[in-house]
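FORM 7B: Structural annotation worksheet

SECTION A. Query
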Amino acid sequence: MASDILKGLTILLVDDERYSLQVFGRALSDMGSPEILFAENGAEALSVLSTCGKKIDMIISDFNMPTVHGLQLLKAVRVGVKDIDRATPFAMLTGYSDKRLVDMALALDVNGFLIKPASKEALSKRLAKLLAQTESDLWLKEVKNYIAIDVDGALNEIAKPDVEPERVRGFQLMSKNKALFRRSGASKGKTIASKGKTVGVEARGLPDNSGDDRAPQQRPQLKGRLCALGELPENSILARDVYTGDGRLFVHAGTELTPRIVSILDDLYDLDHPVKEIWIAI
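SECTION B. Predicted structure
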């Protein structure tokens, strides 16, 4: 029986490949017959967002498109150009996993990744998770945080085959010791003790040490146990730093593992940035 998770919603689907628009459009229609608006690049998408006169409940966009790239579209949404709702759920549609594009999408608070090709069952599961973890907008950062991310410069450098990824402008924020998930603006929450120290934990995001550039062995880690992603207890706290499969810091120890973070961890696994198990505090 087809899922109806998208019933009553309005979805903006953005892709420069018409075949992809057709395939994903049909798949989305089988999930409750949502209203689907189409755009063939980011510029068209921005026009739709600013002129359609209705609430867009979700944007699903490809990465690489002419005129306006998917990352440029995502930044425009998060900045709120043309009075677009900055907290509009945004999923990136991709068939590959260039780690630089993935890093920047994470910095811009993408809400999920949808892998090409995807079965209807897999697509339905991912969209259900995305909708669940965007019911509130507490994850959204201040506009200045998104303005500071140099998407245009990074895309220009990525297009140059002789440029090393570590030197790409805009990815200087993504050094090996800086978490891909950035700390949100407001701070509230709880604390837990670790080896005589107190580690601050934001109730909805990263710990107070999210800007800590010290080497992993110098940052406080917590006593914990190893746990599979699919078996995480509710409200778990990360005991040890988590790294992606290619050695980049994903999130700091002390972070509350919100549904948003767990969902992105699942997505990264399918994007060949595997994280199968993590240490949680006990």
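SECTION C. Observations
The longest helix spans residues 120-133. The first strand starts at residue 10 and ends at 14.

SECTION D. Sign-off
Analyst initials: ____
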